[in-house]
Amino acid sequence: MLIRNACIVDLAHGTVTEDGFCYIDGSTIASVGSGSMGRAGGHGRHGGAFRDNEEIIDADGAYLIPGLVNLHAHTAMAPLRGTAEDVTPEDWFNKHVWIFEKNLTPQDVYWGTLLGALEMLTAGVTCVADHYFHMDHAFRAFQRSGMRANIAQAVFGVGDDAAQKLDEAIAFTEEFSHADPRITVSMGPHSPYLCPPEFLRTVVTEAERIGVRMHIHVSETATQVQQSLQQHGKTPIAVLKDSGVLSGGTLLAHAYHSTDEDLALIRESGSVVAHCPTTYMRFGDMTDFLPRALRAGLTVGLGSDGAASNSTMSLFRTARDAALLAKLATRNPEEGPVGSILPLLTAGGRALGLPNYGEVRPGAPADLVLIRRNTAAMNPGYSATADILYAIQEHNVDTVLVDGRIVVKHGRHVSVDHKTVYDKNRELVTRIAQHTSDTPMQTFAG
Ligand SMILES: [Zn+2]
After folding, report:
1. Residue 313 CB partners (closer than 8 Å, separation 6+)
2. Is the separation of the CB atoms in 303 and 73 below 8 Å?
């Protein structure tokens, strides 16, 4: 496949190449350049004639960027969008989300995940680190969507059925970790406040035995940190270190209320952080986490979190929130500059162990996005990088490739019927929203 007449934007370095072309061989980028080779379409990567049966996409000047990586999501929560607005984190969990989630069936998770995957793909997100329940059904939805994913079965370390649920998660991880090269699996202990240290140690042993990563929530609120100090005499990050969770490749969702010592521990361990700015903004919480984490040398990617605390699975809006929150929290307009925020849109790929992910260069996976520039919002196009961070709208995403295959064309998924997915999700949220008087599945601690 040849994409030509594209404006290639390197999000990691902020460079822009006009009149660019990109040859794709199977699932990998074979060559990238600009000028006559791409325009003529007559000289392939080997210098030979471009064969008739190879597809040519004329990008018509569109921006070509690497696929975006959502480093922390609960994709199946897409149908819970709008169900818990203007509430505290405690009420969000205990009076809304954890009541609804108790009533989600495995089939609901399939349809919810498919809705979230459609939303992400049509917004240029090609890969997600997903953390939820009934993940065998999420697996099927990601397979159906063509999206790349790392999936973790969420487990709580408290409650009568904790041991049984952990056994099920281990069995799931073993069964699915090699089931599809596009979909990897992690172990997903929920958080240190809902997983005691001895439970976490068991998870670490099992993750090492199976050879997978861990994906966990940590230090989401100041109260969680205070309670950990009271209960364990150390911060949640220190609890993770001492139980072995904090290690190379572990994915930490949030870590928003980390101390400087915590940041140093995270950096030394090689763990990576998924920053989810929109969730905190919804809860009226504001810290200078992102500037501190980047200064401390941490590997940080962006996460949407679930649609019930963000309303969107789009990383463009999440990136914009990350930049603005960094400025607000520090009261410094020079914080969160375009050049430090845009790389976060794809940093999650390497964090998930995908080599060369997030680059448009030979050898990188052909997970690519074409962004139309022929809309008012994308003009006059003075700064491609600033426009991609601040001006872009999701409907500017025209074409999306995963693994060298076109999954979105002209803003629509090529094989999933959007309307069926919308109808199924409307039905399921109408059903589960009736269960407002149930007890929640867990209790959120501050
Ligand atoms: Zn989360």
Report:
1. 70, 73, 75, 78, 116, 119, 120, 123, 125, 304, 307
2. yes
Each residue of 148-207: pLDDT tens digit?
Answer: 999 999 999 999 999 999 999 999 999 999 999 999 999 999 999 999 999 999 999 999
Question: Quick one: which H or E segment has residue 183?
Answer: strand 183-189
Scored b (16 or more CB within 10 A) or e, 60-72 reads: eebbbbbbbbbbb
Residues 398, 372 contacting (CB under 8 angstroms): yes
Instruction: Give pLDDT tens digits for 264-296.
Output: 999 999 999 999 999 999 999 999 999 999 999
CATH of the domain at 303: 3.20.20.140
The pTM score is 0.95
Distance 413 CA to ligand 1 centre (A): 26
Distance from chain centroid for Cα 200: 23
- pLDDT score, position 40: 54
The answer to whether residues 56 and 124 belong to one domain is no
How many domains is the chain partitioned into structurally? 2
pLDDT single digits (tens) 414-428: 999 999 999 999 999
Q: How many angstroms is it from 124 CA to the middle of ligand 1?
A: 21
- Distance of CA 164 from the midpoint of ligand 1 (Å): 23
Shortest CA distance to 323 belongs to which of 307, 312, 339? 339
User: 231 and 262 share a domain?
Assistant: yes
Ligand 1 center to 306 CA (angstroms): 6
* Phi, then psi, of 78 in degrees rounded to 5: -50, -40
In angstroms, what is the span from residue 309 Cα to ligand 1's centroid? Answer: 9
Q: How far is the CA of 270 from the centre of ligand 1 (A)?
A: 20
Q: Residue 204 is part of which domain span? A: 68-351
| 274 Cα: distance to centroid of ligand 1 (angstroms) | 9
Q: What is the pLDDT of residue 38?
A: 64
Q: How far is the CA of 190 from the centre of ligand 1 (A)?
A: 9
Q: How far is the CA of 81 from the centre of ligand 1 (A)?
A: 14
Quick check: helix, strand or coil at residue 328? helix
Residue 271's CB is within 10 A of a number of other CB atoms, namely 27
Could you tell me the two tokens for 134?
């009934």
Residues 91 and 16 in one domain: no
Strands 272-275 and 412-413: unpaired
Cβ atoms of 318 and 302 closer than 8 Å: yes
Q: Is the pLDDT reported for residue 255 higher than 90?
A: yes
Distance CA 166, CA 434 (A): 29
CA distance 61 to 254: 37
